Amino acid sequence: xxxxxxxxxxxxxxxxFSVSIYLIFQWVPQIKASNPAEQIAQRIFYxxxxxxxxxxxxxxxxxxxxxxxxxxxxxxxxLISVASAEIGxxxxxxxxxxxxIWAKPxxxxxxxxxxxxxxxxxxxxxxxxxxxxxRYLPDGSKRANLSAVVGIIGFTDVPIVYxxxxxxxxxxxxxVMASSEGSLAAPMFFAFMFSLATFTLLYVYLIRKxxxxxxxxxxxxxxxxxMEIL
Amino acid sequence: xxxxxxxxxxxxxxxxxxxxESILAMWIFSLLIFVIFNFTFEVSRLVMLEIAPGLLWVxxxxxxxxxxxxxxxxxxxxxxxxxxALMPVDxxxxxxxxxxxxxxxxxxxxxxxxxxxxxxxxxxxxxxxxRLIPVLLAGTIGFTSLGTILSAVAVHTRNQQILLSLxxxxxxxxxxxxxxxxxxxxxxxxxxxxxYPLLLRVGAFxxxxxxxxxxxxxxxLED
Lengths: 230, 223
Prior knowledge:
The structure holds two protein chains of two kinds. Chain A is mainly alpha-helical. Chain A is 79% helix and 0% strand. Chain A has one domain (4-18, 52-170, 188-229). Chain B has one domain (3-221). Chain B has helices spanning 3-19, 21-40, 45-77, 80-86, 91-120, 132-154, 160-188, 195-221. The chains are: A mainly alpha, B mainly alpha. The interface between A and B is medium-sized, with 29 and 29 residues.
C-alpha cells in the first residue's frame, strides 16, 4: 500500500516542518510586548491558528463525505468522513491545548467562556460524539447511514453555535488576517502562511494514511468473515 | 397525506395517557433537580432570581431526555422499529409523528412543573408571564426536533441513553442559550426590544432543524 506519492509527501513534510520551525523561532522578529512571556508565547500563534483551520477543513470534509455517502452509498466516502473526523478532533484538541498555553501568560487565566473558546469546545464535543457513536454501533450500512446523518447535522450546527455565543463579550484576539486595523508584518505573514500550507499538507498526508489503514482493516475483516464461513 | 404521522402521534399519546410513564418520570425528576439544586447551592433570593431561568432549562433538558429516550426505545421492544422501517411510507412521516408526540408530552410536563417552579422560587406572577409561552414553545420545539432524530440514531446503539445526551447537548446548545436568555428577560420583567428578534431567531432555527431532520430521517430507518 505504500505508494510513491506518500513517500514524496512525507519527505516534503519533513522539510517543510523544519523550515517552518526555523521561520517561527528564528526568522520572525520579536513582537513588541511589555510582557516578556508574551513575546515568547505569541509564537504559538503559528501552530494554534493553522490547527484551527485544519480542524474546520477536516469537519467540512466530514460533511462533504457524509453527503456523498448518502447520495452514492459508496463505502469510500464513509471511510473518508471517518478519517477526517478523527483528524479534525485531533487538531481541535491541539487548538484547545495550545490556546490555554498562550492565554495563561497573556490573559493570566487558562480558560474563559468567550465565544471562540466556547464554540471550539462545543465543536470538539460534537465530533467526539460522532466518533463515539461509531464505536457503539456494529460495522455495516446502518452505521454508515447513522454517522452520515450526524455528520451532516453536526456541520450545519457549527455556524449556529458560533452565532449563538457571539454576542458575549469577546476576549479572543481578532482575526488579524481579515481585519484592516491590525495587519501582520510581512515576515510574520509569510511565516504564518508557510505554517498554514505545511499544516494543510500534513492533513492531506494524514487523511491518505488513515484512509489506507481503514481500507486495509476492511479487507482484513472481509477475509476473516470468509474464513468463518468456510 | 399525513395519515401515518397522525396515527403514530395518536398511538403515542394514547400510550402516554394510559401509563403516564414519561410525564410522571419527567415531573418527579425535575422536582428532584430543584431539591438537589437547593442543597448544593445555598444562594440568596436575589442570586436565585438571576439563575432561575437557567435552572428551569436545566430541569427541562435533563427531564426531556426521558421522553426522548423513551420515544424510540418503546418501538424497539417488540421489533416495532423494523416494522416501521418496512412500512411503505415516507420516513419523514414517522419523524413528524414522533416529533409531535414527544413535543406535546414535553410541553405538558413543562406546564405541570412550572407552577411548582413558581412556588419554590417565589417568583411573582404577572400578565407579562404570558410571554413565556412562545419562549417555551420555541425552545422546546428546537430541543425536540433535533432530539427526535438523534434519539432514532441512538436507539440503535448499546448505550442509548448516554449517547443521546452526548450527541444532543452540544448540538442543541444554541437553542438552550437563547431560550435561557429569553426566559430570563420574561422572569425579570425586563423585556427589551431584543426580545422579539431573538424569539424569531429561535423559531427560524427550529424550522431549520425540523426540515433537516425531516429530510434525513429516511436514511436512519433503512438497513
